[in-house]
Input
Amino acid sequence: MEYSGAIKLSNLAVSTLKSGAGVVKLATAKSIFASVSPYLVESTFYPLSDRDGKILFKKKEIDSLLRGVRAVAIGMGIGNSKNVYKILVHILKNYDITVIIDADGLNSLAKYGMNILKETKCNVILTPHPKEMERLSGVKVTDILSDPINIAKRLASEYSLTLLLKGSATVVTDGKDVYISDRGCSGMATAGSGDVLSGVILGVCAQNNIKEETPLNVVSAAFINGMAGEIAQTKSNEISMTALDTVNSIAEAISKIKG
Output
């Protein structure tokens, strides 16, 4: 794996738990088990076969991993390879679950083919930043930034999915309805913040797996994540805060929203 920092992976798993998931499995390459496992206190570690740190597609392993799972997030630090795409294709063709695709998962779709999204049984959520959106849609970043809502709606409608487009304001759409969250802060512009967001989306969607409510679930997760970041920045500062600070403020953000 290209980005296999134990803390980064732990952030994703913990943010999912803090956002309401009862059980979280963290699947990653067997070769980094020793560096990751000390950080997984509440999560279950599931090692996947790899070669030189790059995960291999093994059907039995993926099927075992997904047994009883309601939602899965894939792509964070996994690498952009044909094997990653094969894993995606297998999940999308054979499972009726919520699938959040981020980072290298998005890059694999852009590189090896988007049409699998039109054949899937899954409830798909894509979470690109503008450059990833450019790779997926073929629309230049400058054009995306000038018209984010309509470009996001167009791609979401074409592939019948929910799309979260990151930016100064977060746009969430299923091609029909559009939600916008403006929560967040400059201190969240740090490594691992996107992984934390994916973890929060996973936790929220695992609790409520109704497909028609997915866009509202996703924007709710973005709101929670952004509020947690704002709280974290008040306790630190925009220069020093890390993604872990956001994770540690999720509970307080949820308490404020509930209150």
About this structure: The longest strand covers residues 25-29. The longest helix spans residues 214-235.
